[in-house]
């Protein structure tokens, strides 16, 4: 159990977890104290796999709303709670289900691939789900005779097209926290730390991805930093991941990439990237949602039934040996 100023809260959470037969899942962008009490910390793919396999009665999802919805879709008979019900996502908001359905009607040959950062209603309209960790594999496995529609992140979609050579129609959506990274800021940091390796999330702009030593999901970023002989890394994603990187890669240094901040003066216009939605969750809210078993994530049965199929298809494709992935 962690010994710090949050120890009394952490002890209370551990006690509640045993009483409820609960599992606590946390995304890599959660605050350090939440990561430290979680049973599993990971990216969207790893969290989805954990959710699909859990035997817990209660799932405490420390992330954002669409992640908790995914847990409910895969575990309709379990209680799923989210510490803050307002923890949303700019990508999810960019792609309303009715507008997606209208676009799909313009081309009956569309085969829709949805990045997991979308609502359950959008998932229910799609053929397969992907994460940043498996998007390339999912696209390679897509039917060759279909016109691919990729929603809602245009930057991830563009990167996948670069990797696969497969043309796709891209939805015009993005992660507000990742598009704040700019080429000039990263170049300045590279000049300051010339020996550092640059690891970039594919939700970033192409001008930033082009400067990377590796473009990868958060989980693959961590694997790269573990296995690289380099001792210094420039990290181009939400700064919450630094906590886990420091824990799992002792002796290595991780540098947050500054992002442009229009609210600051031109001479002092940089700050670290934080997702305001991910940071809505706190350790106190984790404790409180376990005490009240609320706020709960509930979904209509028909949405659960329809949305489950593309998620299960994703998990099945991801589990295949690489040579048979398509």
Could you characterize the architecture of this molecule?
The chain is α/β, with parallel strands linked by helices. Helices cover 41% and strands 17% of the residues. It contains 15 helices and 14 strands. It has helices at residues 7-20, 32-37, 44-53, 65-74, 90-94, 97-104, 120-123, 135-140, 154-164, 183-192, 206-209, 218-227, 241-248, 283-292, 301-319; strands at residues 22-27, 40-42, 58-62, 79-81, 110-115, 128-130, 147-151, 168-170, 197-200, 214-215, 232-236, 253-256, 258-260, 270-272. The strands form 4 sheets. A 4-stranded parallel β-sheet has the order 2-1-3-4, with helices on both faces. A 4-stranded parallel β-sheet has the order 6-5-7-8. Strands 10-9-11-12 form a 4-stranded parallel β-sheet, with helices on one face. Strand 3 (58-62), helix 4 and strand 4 form a beta-alpha-beta unit. The longest helix is centred in the C-terminal third of the chain and has 19 residues, at 301-319. The radius of gyration is 20 Å and the shape is globular.
Protein topology:
Layout: H1 7-20, E1 22-27, H2 32-37, E2 40-42, H3 44-53, E3 58-62, H4 65-74, E4 79-81, H5 90-94, H6 97-104, E5 110-115, H7 120-123, E6 128-130, H8 135-140, E7 147-151, H9 154-164, E8 168-170, H10 183-192, E9 197-200, H11 206-209, E10 214-215, H12 218-227, E11 232-236, H13 241-248, E12 253-256, E13 258-260, E14 270-272, H14 283-292, H15 301-319
Parallel strand pairs: 1-2, 1-3, 3-4, 5-6, 5-7, 7-8, 9-10, 9-11, 11-12
Antiparallel strand pairs: 13-14
């Amino acid at each position: 159990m962690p010994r710090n100023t949050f120890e009394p809260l952490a002890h209370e959470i551990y006690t509640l977890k045993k009483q409820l037969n609960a599992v606590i899942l946390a995304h890599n962008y959660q605050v350090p104290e939440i990561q430290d009490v979680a049973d599993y910390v990971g990216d969207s793919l790893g969290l989805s796999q954990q959710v699909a396999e859990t035997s817990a009665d209660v799932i405490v999802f420390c992330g954002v709303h669409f992640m908790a919805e995914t847990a409910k879709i895969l575990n309709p008979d379990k209680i799923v709670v989210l510490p803050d019900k307002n923890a949303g996502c700019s990508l999810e908001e960019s792609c309303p289900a009715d507008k997606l359905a209208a676009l799909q009607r313009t081309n009956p040959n569309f085969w829709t691939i949805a990045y997991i950062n979308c609502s359950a209603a959008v998932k229910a309209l799609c053929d397969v789900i992907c994460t940043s960790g498996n998007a390339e594999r999912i696209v390679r496995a897509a039917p060759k005779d279909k016109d691919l529609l990729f929603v809602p992140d245009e930057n991830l979609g563009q990167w996948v097209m670069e990797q696969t050579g497969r043309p796709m129609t891209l939805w015009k959506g993005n992660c507000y926290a990742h598009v704040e990274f700019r080429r000039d800021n990263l170049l300045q940091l590279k000049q300051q730390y010339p020996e550092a390796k640059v690891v970039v999330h594919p939700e970033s702009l192409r001008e930033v991805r082009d400067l990377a030593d590796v473009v990868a999901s958060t989980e693959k970023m961590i694997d790269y930093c573990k296995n690289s002989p380099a001792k210094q890394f420039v990290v181009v994603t939400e700064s919450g991941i630094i906590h886990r990187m420091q824990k799992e890669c002792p002796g290595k240094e991780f540098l947050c990439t500054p992002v442009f901040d229009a609210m600051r003066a031109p001479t002092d216009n940089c700050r670290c990237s934080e997702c305001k939605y991910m940071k809505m969750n706190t350790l106190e809210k984790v404790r409180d949602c376990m005490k009240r078993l609320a706020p709960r994530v509930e979904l209509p049965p028909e949405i659960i039934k329809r949305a489950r199929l593309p998620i299960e298809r994703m998990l099945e494709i991801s589990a295949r040996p690489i040579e048979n992935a398509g």
